[in-house]
Design goal:
alpha+beta; six-stranded antiparallel sheet; about 40% helix
Amino acid sequence: METIEEYLASIDGEAEQKKFSELYEWSIATFPQLELRFGWSQPMFTHHGTFIIAFKKTKKHITVSPEVAGIKQFEAKIEAAGYAHTGNTFRIGWEQATDYRLLEEMIQFNLDEKAEYTAFWRKAKK
């Protein structure tokens, strides 16, 4: 897939398409400096060539990928929002409310922390 329109059309269910579309529209309205690109079959946002956040549709939820550092930084808030998570992603169920404040904090954290990054991913900490 190469466009957001193609991606949205691939989502089963009108309500799910609308929810994902609202998330995408919010992202570009709130952070117009982000660049949309597709990789690993999902839309992701980058800034000056470095990864910031990705959203991926699944049958039961939207998977949010803010990198491991984003999960670690916001783990308590992710859990408080009622979202299940792993070490590098969390899930917003189709029936769950989207915590836009949390997403805004995560994206801003990545923008601030990666302001001087030149690589796509963060370097693994030893």
